[in-house]
Automatic annotation (TrEMBL):
Residues 85-122, 209-232 are annotated as: Disordered. It comes from the Eukaryota. Residues 94-103 have a biased composition (Low complexity). Residues 223-232 have a biased composition (Basic and acidic residues). This is Uncharacterized protein.
Length: 232
């Protein structure tokens, strides 16, 4: 699919394709693969338009639509998280500065009894029992973590979806290479046909003995055919 230059125009073109149900699978694939900025998705209502394809009869289209919506949802969550963190940082800075200005802590003086007790009471020494092992040093055997059935199914589904998307990208690459090869073959055939025609005209001119008089017409014909090849 040939897309215009510029992300804004590209997303607008893909939006038009989705609205008109033309090149739907390729358009969804382009939106997924390129990961355009969130503001372009929002400006073109890509999420709302894509929801229409969740119930598509074609499995690939429904799958790509779901993946694109999930991708946009993730981008929105990340954006919201960033905004929340920025708000929290601004709030923490303001509360910290105000608390530092208003609160002043003073040390509490010790009583005479506490001072005398601290001077006279000796430090008790408790001998360590031999052979005793602290509970913290004992190795505890970690139980095996059982993955819930729902989580296992979700993981398997994500793996299948990942493989499906990779297969799409690989198929897209093969198609592009095949088209490039076909175009190269077509150009080669045109060039060969042009060369054969040129040689044929030259041979006919030589047989007729009109190389001098007919050279201008022959050259003009060759120029026209070259222009046709370049336009192709």
């Amino acid at each position: 699919m040939q897309l215009p230059v510029g992300k804004e125009r590209q997303v607008a073109t893909l939006r038009y394709n989705l609205l008109t149900d033309s090149d739907t699978l390729e358009s969804l694939g382009e939106l997924l693969e390129n990961e355009y900025p969130l503001k372009l998705y929002r400006a073109n209502d890509i999420k709302q338009i894509t929801m229409n394809y969740l119930s598509s009869e074609r499995r690939e289209i429904a799958f790509f639509a779901r993946k694109l919506i999930e991708q946009i949802d993730d981008m929105e969550k990340k954006m919201k998280q960033i905004e929340t963190e920025m708000e929290a940082k601004r709030g923490n800075r303001s509360s910290t500065s105000s608390a530092a200005e208003t609160s002043v802590t003073k040390p509490t003086p010790l009583s005479e009894h506490a001072i005398s007790s601290k001077r006279t009471m000796p430090t008790l020494f408790v001998p360590k029992k031999r052979g005793a092992t602290s509970i913290a040093c004992q190795k505890t055997q970690k139980p095996e973590v059982q993955i819930p059935e729902a989580s296992r199914i979700s993981i398997e589904r994500k793996m299948r979806e990942k493989r499906m998307f990779e297969e799409y990208l690989e198929k897209k690459k093969v198609i592009a290479e095949e088209k490039k090869r076909e175009d190269s073959i077509k150009v080669s055939k045109v060039m060969n046909a042009f060369e054969e025609a040129r040689l044929k005209r030259k041979q006919e001119a030589m047989r007729a003995g009109i190389l001098g008089g007919g050279s201008t017409e022959t050259e003009e014909s060759e120029v026209q055919q070259k222009e046709m090849v370049m336009d192709y």
